[in-house]
Amino acid sequence: MRHGATKDRIALAKKIRQTGTWADVGAALGVSHVRAIKILRQAQHNESLPAWTAGLDIRTARILLAEGFKKSKRKVRSAIEHGKRIDRISTGRLVILTQWLSLNTNHGENVV
Fold first, then answer.
1. Average pLDDT over residues 7-33
2. pTM for the whole thing?
3. Under the phi-then-psi rule, with left for phi > 0, alpha for psi from -120 to 50, and beta for the rest, what region is 69?
């Protein structure tokens, strides 16, 4: 799931949860109440990802954070350009990462 891919549904679920039950949230999302709980907990966790990771899938963003990239997209770009191997980044994920780096976004570009 990409950042914001289900933003509207999550916002609706949070609004319903303010006054409704988990069953109400599940019904609105079209899932069971147990799955609704998991979805909202995951959404809360994903909201904690830094802004510079916007546009990346969640798994790749988490891998970068775990590998010590905490400050900016520019640091990731520099590491890739200098041939640094990033553990847990598969060949397929490296393609995704390279495409993300080529996008013209400034999320976190100015952070040192």
1. 87
2. 0.57
3. beta
